[in-house]
Write a structure and sequence with these properties.
By secondary structure, this protein is of the alpha+beta class. Helix content is 47%, strand content 8%.
């Protein structure tokens, strides 16, 4: 297991368990219900800014949250009738089976099993809070039935308690080092070229699997440094790659039918993560190095498996190495979390007509009615839109790589794509791998 600050992982656990999973059944006393779980792990409870930020991302500001501003809105679980989809607005009646299942006896037995699980974790891993967090994060859905539909907030029941706990612990790993969170989006490729050059179905599968595998090498850096909960998209629970990596590092994870099969390319070629802003660029460099290192291992293994004459293979080696450096394409973008004026200035740099001013006008009406102060999370959608647009802009540029082949061939021997050779009158143009340029002018 990678060396990490155990206090950070301890704080992540505190953030992850700051609300009990069955919070919706006792909203008024839910904070006190979290104390026994944390006490088992020798962690003291205290409300943190990560919870406030996460809540502001989860739901719209509500009036009368502050004392003496009016009657605070309180909704008991018995009043819940349906779960509303945040995009379509359609209602799904899941609360009937939830209420039917979670009797007082079931709630008591479930919490007892979970307390026993936490006690076993502490006994097994002692003060290795990184391992405790990993196993806790992975296994918690198995203890609570319907966890994906247990709401984090009964007033606005369109996000689950699990989503809220994941986001809170992800933010905590940024705030721990006194850092502002940021979105980091990474993409590797190419996609269309793999599809275009595939001759058989197995070629399509292999191309997809290779990109999925390399995507995990990037995600693994986030997981080791900050936790797999910091990957917003895709969800890393029940991914075989995550399961296999945690098992290799000593986690006690049983096989489960919920885990995706290992031969499925289940990860997309891009992912979105939350990382500390001041560490984003260094994290990107680690990600890129990790991808290249794994790609080099794959390439070396493949080349060693080629059965051909030794002399011919030595000649091929030079060109093999040249072509190897042309893959993969690597793109990234980062967006520090802004709010209000900072965000408006950033939006104005990228969009001619942004509705950020109208949004601010509406949101401040709730502030006047006693909502909590506006947080960066209140502007989640705008910050995400910025990081997405920035990545799309980077991907629209042209990547030019050095490829100088002395052989009399029309393009390289693998794909035939590198047919253009640029030189000036004095010096050959040298471009480092992964250099991205907008326009290349050659006299």
């Amino acid at each position: 297991m990678a060396e990490n600050n155990q206090n950070m992982w301890k704080n992540k656990i505190k953030a992850f368990l700051h609300d009990p999973v069955l919070k919706c059944f006792d909203i008024i006393n839910h904070e006190s219900k979290a104390l026994p779980f944390l006490k088992i792990l020798d962690i003291n409870y205290n409300k943190s800014e990560s919870d406030n930020l996460s809540s502001s991302m989860d739901r719209f500001p509500l009036p009368f949250e502050l004392k003496n501003k009016g009657p605070r809105i309180i909704i008991d679980s018995e009043q819940l009738q349906y779960f509303q989809h945040p995009l379509s607005g359609n209602s799904l009646d899941v609360f009937s089976p939830i209420k039917e299942y979670y009797s007082e006896d079931v709630i008591k037995r479930t919490n007892e099993k979970f307390r026993k699980f936490l006690s076993d974790l502490k006994e097994k891993y002692k003060d290795d809070y990184q391992k405790i967090f990993y196993e806790l994060w992975w296994k918690i859905p198995s203890f609570y039935k319907y966890i994906d539909f247990l709401p984090a907030d009964t007033r606005v029941p369109y996000h689950s308690i699990l989503d809220h706990l994941d986001m809170t612990s992800a933010i905590e790993s940024c705030l721990y080092s006194q850092n502002k969170p940021c979105f980091l989006q990474v993409a590797i490729g190419p996609i269309q070229k793999f599809i275009a050059t595939s001759k058989k179905t197995v070629d399509l599968w292999m191309g997809s699997y290779l990109l999925s595998y390399l995507s995990f090498q990037a995600i693994k850096v986030i997981g080791k440094k900050y936790g797999y909960d910091n990957v917003v998209f895709p969800n890393m629970r029940n991914q075989y790659f995550t399961f296999d990596e945690l098992k290799k590092n000593g986690l006690d994870l049983p096989d489960s039918s919920n885990i995706l099969p290992k031969d499925i390319a289940s990860l997309p070629n891009r992912f979105l993560a939350i990382v500390p802003f001041s560490e984003a660029e260094n994290t990107v460099m680690e990600i890129k190095e990790g991808i290249i290192e794994e790609w080099n291992k794959i390439s070396e293994y493949t080349f060693d498996s080629i059965n051909m004459d030794k002399t011919e293979k030595e000649e091929l080696k030079k060109y093999w190495e040249m072509q190897k450096t042309t893959f993969p394409e690597f793109y990234w973008s980062c967006q520090e979390w802004f709010k209000e004026n900072e965000l408006k200035n950033e939006m104005d740099n990228f969009f001619k007509d942004s509705d950020i001013e109208r949004y601010n006008e509406e949101i401040k009406k709730f502030v006047a009615l006693g909502s909590y102060d506006l947080k960066e999370g209140t502007y989640y959608g705008y910050n995400f839109e910025l990081v997405r647009r920035k990545l799309d802009a980077v991907k629209s540029t042209t990547i030019v790589r050095e490829y100088l082949d002395a052989r009399p061939v029309d393009g390289d021997s693998l794909s035939g794509e590198f047919k253009m050779l640029f030189e000036d009158s004095e010096n050959r143009i040298k471009l480092n791998t992964f250099t991205t340029i907008k326009i290349l002018l050659v006299d």
